[in-house]
Q: What sequence folds into this?
């Protein structure tokens, strides 16, 4: 009898362990930046929320610093299910959805309020772009991750007006950014973020394009000595999940993920400009920080005004609709 009871207890323990293992769902996440970066912290906040709300049934395993996939590989990796979720620069989806590059058009957003309204969940712009990304890539957009605004880096000489960009080889990270550089008189060189440090160090390019947080996290102040706060375009990343994986979850777990995504999106959006300012303040002791005057900014706006027409011509109806959606959000 005793042997029978012990056997029953052991069997029950095995079944219980199996049930717990089966109840737990681990979501592997690929991120090109360190977990200490604001995007990494954003994922960790999301992880804490879904684990708490699911009673530990949902867990996140974050692979930061491009351990699994480089940024350019994320759309395909997530879409095919090679990894359950990840973060990618929004511009990485231009091959499938060219209209996503609308956020890269220089000076298309009048101010922070305009940007927030245009890219808010449920907005006309977001609804169209998120649906297109899902349809074309099988990657479900969970939330947009604000990264900050575009700035320029240079050595020895400050970039203040378009004339300062003449004949300069400039690191860019998207097609529309390349058009912007051409409009300013420079020569664009497309380059991933991870290659910036070495490129600047070796003089492969003269000028850099990036976000303020990247200057700090990638220690770009060690190889560039001027930073120009042009703030000419928004830099947006997206947190995406393989749609087949998402659809395979219970409705309860799906809702937990969506609700938590909405929370962390707002948290990052609310904090990003403060974080951007903190990053600039931190590197100001290592670099010369250049803030454009109203007159200088007007020169930039005038010089790049044709980029929006080029964008619409290249992206056809979808691009025109995206531009219209952005403009409508300003009203």
A:
């Amino acid at each position: 009898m005793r042997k029978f009871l012990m056997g029953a207890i052991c069997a029950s323990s095995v079944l219980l362990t199996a049930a717990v293992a089966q109840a737990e769902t681990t979501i592997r996440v690929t991120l090109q930046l360190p977990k200490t970066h604001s995007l990494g912290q954003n994922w960790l906040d999301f992880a804490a929320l879904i684990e708490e709300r699911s009673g530990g049934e949902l867990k996140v395993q974050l692979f930061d610093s491009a351990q699994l996939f480089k940024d350019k590989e994320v759309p395909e990796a997530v879409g095919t299910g090679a990894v359950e979720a990840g973060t990618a620069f929004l511009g990485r989806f231009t091959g499938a959805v060219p209209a996503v590059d609308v956020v890269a058009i220089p000076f298309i957003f009048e101010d922070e309020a305009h940007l927030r309204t245009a890219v808010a969940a449920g907005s006309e712009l977001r609804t169209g772009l998120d649906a297109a990304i899902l349809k074309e890539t099988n990657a479900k957009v969970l939330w947009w991750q604000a990264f900050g605004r575009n700035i320029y880096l240079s050595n020895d000489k400050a970039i203040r007006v378009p004339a300062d960009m003449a004949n300069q080889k400039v690191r860019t990270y998207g097609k529309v950014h390349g058009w912007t550089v051409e409009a300013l008189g420079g020569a664009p060189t497309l380059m991933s973020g991870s290659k910036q440090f070495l490129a600047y160090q070796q003089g492969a390019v003269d000028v850099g394009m990036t976000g303020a947080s990247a200057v700090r996290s990638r220690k770009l102040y060690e190889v560039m000595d001027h930073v120009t706060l042009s703030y000419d375009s928004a830099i947006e990343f997206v947190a995406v999940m393989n749609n087949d994986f998402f659809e395979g979850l219970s409705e309860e777990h799906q809702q937990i993920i969506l609700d938590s995504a909405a929370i962390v999106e707002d948290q990052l959006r609310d904090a990003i400009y403060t974080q951007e300012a903190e990053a600039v303040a931190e590197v100001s002791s290592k670099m010369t920080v250049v803030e454009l005057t109203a007159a200088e900014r007007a020169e930039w706006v005038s010089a790049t005004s044709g980029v929006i027409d080029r964008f619409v011509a290249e992206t056809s109806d979808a691009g025109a609709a995206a531009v219209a959606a952005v403009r409508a959000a300003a009203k």
Summary: The CA atoms of residues 154 and 266 lie 33 Å apart.
